Amino acid sequence: MRTALTVAVYLAACLHGEGQNFPSTHISNGIVTADIYLPDPVKGSYRATRFDWSGIIRNLTYRGHTFFGQWYEVHDPLTHDAITGPVNIFDTPGPATGYADARTGETFLRIGVGHVEKPVEAAYRETNLYKVVDGGKWVVDEKPGRIEFRQELPARSGYAYRYSKTISLAAGEPVMILSQEMTNTGSKPIDTTVFNHGFFQIDSTPASPDLLWTFPFEPRTTGDFGGMAEIHGRQILYSRELHPGERVLGVLQGYGQTVADHAFSLENRKTGAGVRVKGDRPVTKMTFWSRRMAYSPEASIHLHIAPGMTERWQTRYEFYVSAKKESGR
Question: Would you report the helix, strand and coil content of the chain in percent, each value rounded to 5?
Fold first, then answer.
């Protein structure tokens, strides 16, 4: 009986990634607090090869409201999407940097992960788990209200870089800023797209009519979101609550080529908690994606980094609670 109970408790913990001793830390500015997993090739909470390993936010709280959280059932560090918070995917769409030129057994680049081995396969798949041959060196620099992740990746097949991501909480404000920088230290250009997969989850509320998305432009899509969401002017609303296993997916159009359209807001109309997001680069593609317990527009930007050159980009998150909810009305 005791053994059965112990196994049950262990399995319950695994569902939420608990009890696995993942390296982590937290930062706070006294207003916003963020719990953050640290990159580690042996003990890290995420060791797959789809997402950037740095700056994985397990949870973020503001005035008692939560904005991220585990949205899948079982946490396995080697599963491609067992990840939370605003994290990057590079090289989308299309194959990863260097994949087309690499022969079987040679390496190609997964930015934010490292050099990975090309196996025998018919085609590149972003969701595949590739063998990490060289993950370079990660350094974490933590200060009050701020944490910086730096990855130094040595050259293989002409590709090398220095990459940094800094999560900073603005002094005296409910604002988080993701600042990223990449220097090409190799001999070949790095040409890629990157989008931040927000994985928002506000107050553990599922994708439902309780949530409201607002854009600075009038979004359009060629599909109908499977009847699960609708566009009304500059807003997207869910028609009903999503069930486990369901997905909303559609490419958005209607944005322009200016930075002003790289923005959106999400509000939980039931609890009043919301977030306003703004990038500092024009959007090259935007996809609207939702699962039951995680939801996000995916705004891609383009990066072309010649050898010896550096690119920088930034995303700002402003958290709030609606005045109506704060006043109790």
Answer: 10, 45, 50
Give buried/exposed letters for 185-207 (b at 16+ CB in 10 A, else e).
bbebebebbbbbbbbbbbeebbb
pTM: 0.92
User: What Cα–Cα distance (Å) separates residue 62 from each residue in 66, 68, 281, 327?
Assistant: 7, 11, 27, 17
Question: Which residues are paired to 303 by β-bridges?
Answer: 192
The pLDDT of residue 8? 33
Question: What are 143's strand-pairing partners?
Answer: 146
- Return the bridge partners of 236, or none: 213, 231
- Cβ neighbours of 3 (radius 10 Å): 7
Any residues with CB less than 8 A from the CB of 1 and at least 6 apart, and which? none
Alpha carbon distance 155, 133 (integer Å): 12
Longest Cα pair distance anywhere in the chain, in angstroms? 63
Instruction: Read off the pLDDT of residues 95-108 as tens digits, 9 standing for 90 and up.
Output: 999 999 999 999 99
CATH number 2.70.98.10 given to 2-326: yes
The token pair at 58 is 């397990």
Spacing of C-alpha 216 from chain mean position: 22
* Domain boundaries, given as residue ranges, for the chain: 2-326
Cα three-residue angle 22-39-51, rounded to 5 degrees: 110
